[in-house]
Amino acid sequence: MVKPELERAMLAFLFAPLVVPAMWLAYFLIAFPLRGPGPVGPALAGLFLFASLFASYAYLGTFLLGLPLYLLARARGWTAIWTAALGGFIAGAVLIFATLTSGKPFGPAITTGGTMLALVLGGPAGAAVGTVLWLIARPDLRDGGGAQQAQ
Question: How far is residue 45's CA from residue 21's CA, in Å, rounded to a whole number?
Answer without folding.
Answer: 14
